[in-house]
Design goal:
Blueprint: H1 16-47, E1 58-59, H2 60-67, E2 76-80, E3 83-87, E4 94-97, E5 100-107, E6 113-117, E7 123-125, H3 137-146, E8 155-156, E9 158-161, E10 176-180, H4 187-192, E11 206-211, E12 216-220, E13 223-227, E14 232-234, E15 238-241, E16 246-249, E17 258-260, E18 272-275, E19 278-285, E20 289-294, E21 302-303, H5 315-328, E22 337-339, E23 342-344, E24 346-348, E25 363-369, E26 372-376, E27 381-383, E28 388-389, E29 393-398, E30 403-405, E31 414-416
Parallel strand pairs: 4-17, 18-31
Antiparallel strand pairs: 1-16, 2-3, 3-5, 4-5, 5-6, 6-15, 7-14, 8-15, 9-10, 11-12, 12-13, 16-17, 18-19, 19-20, 20-29, 21-28, 22-23, 24-29, 25-26, 26-27, 30-31
Length: 419
């Protein structure tokens, strides 16, 4: 019987170069998977954030874009070169940051959000002389006075143009800077907000960051103009929120502004307090005290003094401390604090103090100019001390207040329990 021959299996030899190629391809595919998977997870976390309890939070930029209907005419949200820009006077773009009301300028293409203060908080000079914005005193003022009252964790650096503007017909933005977390409005911000010559930014005299040959630019009623940088005009801060910022509640209307997830009901600069049926606004927070300014003017105008422009020796100080203070009936809450050049439980504001509520005008400040007294008006002016003018007073208040209701906004001030 013949023996069956056993077939030999052929061995296939794979070239080393092919093996190397396969290994490298596998590594490349794995690296791509890790890289894009990590990025996908990162952006999923940004746009689908959760709080400590695991509840899904809404991303503010996505909330705005998803809820707002993009328009091509009239007031509303426009899509311009990848940016969502608010235009016109009647738009629901209110947002509350640390008890300060802002308006949303735009949602940028990278989903950061530019905001501008709804109201100016003081009138200051741009600079003593013409200079570039990065060297101006108004930039230092923003960074030293207004930025510290805003939670910097919300912010990313904000961008401004450094091109000089000689004519409004030749506004350019070839060079930019982003060395700060706060800035002024720019010409383009204002122009982009206009619809039929109307804007939510307002019609007050407010400084812009742009500078020309001999002057600095500012808004003026419905237009843009320029003036000597030493003029005193309003200052509104512009900030940029991170694209990962989370939304808690609100619909952007004036009485129900957007509120961020991390906002807490603490007393901050800009908080409104109702104490014994009088509303005050906090303009300074100390270790154990608050400085508050009245949200209305004293009913009857008062003279500063018959002859003296020194507040510490004036009849106005005597009136406030000896007569008016007792009418408030809040002695248990008062605390002696340092005002500009004197101590007391009641006083008046100085030019350096933040001044919320720009509808209040023509009131005396404690500052002097020669023999006259400085007056806070549509533009800062000066007056003889013997002229009767409005009085806006300030108080020193204890910090340990018992809040019984409200949310600290001007529409729902914190109601303080009165003993």
């Amino acid at each position: 019987m013949a023996k069956k021959r056993r077939r030999r299996k052929k061995r296939i030899f794979v070239p080393k170069i092919q093996t190397t190629f396969c290994i490298l391809s596998l590594i490349f595919i794995l690296a791509c998977f890790i890289f894009y998977g990590t990025r996908l997870y990162k952006y999923y976390k940004i746009y689908n954030p959760k709080n400590e309890r695991g509840e899904v939070l809404l991303n503010l930029p996505s909330k705005i874009i998803d809820d707002e209907e993009v328009v091509e005419s009239g007031d509303g949200l426009y899509l311009i070169n990848g940016n969502y820009v608010y235009k016109g006077e009647n738009v629901n773009n209110y947002i509350l940051i640390n008890d300060i009301l802002f308006r949303i300028l735009r949602v940028n293409s990278d989903k950061t959000v530019d905001l501008v203060m709804d109201d100016y908080v003081n009138k200051v000079m741009w600079n003593k002389e013409v200079t570039t914005y990065d060297k101006s005193s108004i930039k230092k003022y923003l960074e030293s006075t207004i930025l510290p009252i805003i939670n910097k964790d919300y912010l990313t650096t904000t961008t401004y143009c450094t091109d000089r503007v000689y004519e409004l017909s030749e506004v350019s933005c070839e060079e930019t800077n982003n060395d700060s977390y706060i800035r002024l409005l720019g010409i383009n911000d204002y122009l982009n907000s206009l619809n039929n010559d109307k804007t939510f930014i307002g019609e007050d005299y407010v400084w812009l960051y742009n500078v020309g040959k001999n002057n600095a630019w500012h808004t003026t009623n419905k237009y843009i103009s320029n003036s000597s940088p030493s003029t005193l005009y309003g200052v509104k801060g512009v900030i940029t929120l991170k694209n990962s910022i989370t939304y808690l509640k609100g619909d952007g209307t004036i009485d129900n502004p957007y509120i961020l997830e991390d906002e807490n009901e603490e007393i901050n600069v800009g908080t409104y307090l109702d104490i014994n049926d009088n509303v005050y606004i906090v303009y300074e927070v100390g270790k154990d005290y608050l400085k508050v300014e009245s949200n209305k003017l004293i009913k009857e105008k008062q003279l500063f003094d018959k002859t003296s422009n020194d507040y510490t020796k004036s009849s106005l100080r005597t009136y406030l401390e000896k007569t008016y203070l007792d009418k408030l009936k809040i002695n248990d809450y008062l605390k002696e604090v340092e005002f500009e050049g004197y101590k007391g439980k009641i006083g008046i504001l100085s030019s350096d103090d933040l001044k919320f509520n720009s509808t209040l005008n023509n009131y005396y400040l404690s500052d002097t100019d020669g023999d006259e007294v400085v007056v806070y008006n549509g533009s800062v002016s000066k007056s003889s001390p013997s002229t009767k003018r409005n009085i806006r007073y300030a108080l020193g208040i204890k910090k340990d207040l018992n809040i019984i209701s409200g949310n600290g906004t001007k529409y729902a001030p914190f109601i303080v329990e009165v003993k």
